[in-house]
Amino acid sequence: MRRQHVMSEGLWSMQVEVPYPKAIRCGEMVFTCGQCDLGADGKPMRANDLLAQTEKTMEYAYGVIGKAGAQPQDLTRLQVFYVTDGSVDEDAYVRAVAAMVKKAGGGAAVIVPTPLDCFYYPGMVVEIDAVAVVGETPRKAAPSPAWLPAPFAPAIQAGETIHIGSIEPRDAQGALIAPGDLRVQTEAVFDALEKHLGALGADLTDVVKLSVYFTGERADWDMIAAARARRFTAPGPIVTDVPLPRLSPQGARIRIEATAMRGRDGKRLARKPLRPGGHWSWPAEQPFVHALQCGDKIFIGGQVPLDAKGGVSHPKDVEKQTHRVMGDIKALLGEFGADFGQVVKTNIFYVGGPTPHDLHANLNIRSTYYAKPGPASTGVPVPALAFPGAMLSVEVLAMTG
Known about the structure:
This protein has helices at about 50-65, 90-105, 180-200, 220-230, 320-335, 355-365, and strands at about 5, 25, 30, 75-85, 110-115, 125-135, 140, 155-160, 160-165, 205-215, 240-245, 255-260, 270-275, 290-295, 295-305, 345-350, 375-380, 390-400.
């Protein structure tokens, strides 16, 4: 399938050279790397000013999808990583982003706000990931709750892909359900996921990718893992788990997002799931797979440095873990007859703080697996992963044809 790459010339830069474009178009899909308000030298502009950096970063996002042939109304998904110590009013911030989308002429889209403690460059406080689907009109959107500002919707179908934005444990008026109670909130977000899918004529069997953001420790992951396992039958979707330092509003413990696929004619699509023997395993039995192919897309869930018994390999060794994870991704791609050259998007959650070294320690290694121009890439730091001693989790989307 023909690819179009939007490179870095005349745009912002990282502080190290990387083989990644600012955006890539493959067929109808356009994916950006995490857009940032950085200068040509990789240093943050408008340091620590969340709204000013967000406005500039949204400008970059629209600019690079435009270079790939997309219009503002083609923007379908935004993931907004932002820094907060808990003082940012996330609802007000989402309303501000919604106003930026409307000002740019954008239409319905889903949003995934993702609060962080810090980024890899001090003074950088926002990074925005965007997905556009070119020329797919009309689109179908699930009904929006009153508290979600237009033009954002909880779920949108564009072509064969259904994007489900951030699902939070709220009632119809926007009030938090069971503050602090992770068990009740987990059931609430999965109930909402089923509702949004149903509004678009889909169900849980159509989900190809699930992301779970939560606050807590390993025991909390065990509880979430057991609860979600009851919702899905094997073989389920791929999954990525991301512990976060905090969620909004105060007392929230979990939020989820998902991608599903359903035919334009409303019929279920065939898929090829993959959970190969000898690959790493979750420490608790899960009905999920490591990778699956649906149509021209290959989804690979968050690859973490675990062994076949669910133990962490090479604890806290970034170099060895990065090679282990990238080797696992290579093997999974190979099972579908694909390789790194067909990867269009990769997301990396790594353990680190507000220093460039923590990012560059894994970035310099994983970049060697791609020939320039590589995929669109987004990396964000988190205080820890669900499995103590694991230093990174890498998810991948490849497109064939």
